[in-house]
Write a structure and sequence with these properties.
The protein has 7 helices and 10 strands. It is an alpha/beta fold. The chain has a single domain, classed as Spore Coat Polysaccharide Biosynthesis Protein SpsA, Chain A (Alpha-Beta Complex), CATH 3.90.550. Strands 1, 4, 5, 6, 7, 8, 9 and 10 form an 8-stranded mixed beta sheet that branches. Helix 3 packs across helix 5. It starts with a strand and ends with a helix.
């Protein structure tokens, strides 16, 4: 199945106080880690940045991905997903946040594999969903736009309008029992933990050789 990957990189990073996507973990920036992981799933990868980022002097050009700008300024993650869907040339779209350094390819592939017949495939556990680690079809763009035009920016507010497949706890346990897929970086403490986890994983990998 052909799928586009959409990386949301337009967050404010207010708690960290600086751009998240450039933070380095095990020799790669967060955005490079995301692109590297997703490149084995998608030939088309979009990085969605904010209009403020687009006006800055920083470069947001990365090999293997195209950068696009939020269609509406300062409106949050729903706009980022919608923007990615508008630009995508594929019906199926895998959406992740750029601050998730431990994407699990087996879980992502599974989510894509079970997506036929559904417009959204989204992890769910204890009534908590992970909308920034989900598969969205092009059919979601219309309901999303309706929410945006009503200034209702709740990221899951359109789910009642489309066909949804939840990835339940038992399925998540098969692929990612520690739930590292959903670990995201908001603070210095998160960044420190991510570097520690990555170093530990690198040590395990070397010991197996």
């Amino acid at each position: 199945m052909t799928v586009t990957s959409i990386v949301l990189a337009g967050g404010l990073s207010s708690r960290l106080g600086r751009e998240k996507l450039a933070e380095v973990i095990s020799g790669k920036s967060l955005i490079e880690r995301a692109i590297s992981s997703l490149s084995s799933l998608s030939r088309e990868i979009f990085i969605v940045i904010s209009q403020k980022q687009a006006r800055s002097s920083l470069s947001y050009t990365y090999p293997g991905a195209k950068t696009v700008v939020d269609l509406y300024p300062g409106k949050g993650s729903l706009i980022g997903i919608y923007t990615g869907l508008v630009h995508s040339s594929n019906f199926l779209n895998l959406v992740v946040a750029c601050d998730m350094p431990f994407l699990n390819l087996n879980l992502l592939r599974y989510m894509v594999d079970i997506s036929p017949g559904f417009d959204v495939v989204i992890p769910k556990e204890d009534d908590q969903t992970e909308p920034l680690h989900a598969v969205y079809s092009k059919n979601c763009a219309g309901p999303m736009k309706n929410l945006i035009e009503r200034a209702d920016l709740k990221i899951t507010g359109f789910l009642d309008s489309v066909k949804v497949r939840y990835v339940e706890k038992e399925e998540l346990d098969r692929f990612d029992p520690q739930r590292l897929s959903f670990f995201n970086i908001n603070t210095e403490s998160d960044l420190k933990k991510a570097r520690m986890l990555a170093a530990r994983e690198n040590s395990k990998r070397k010991s197996r050789k």
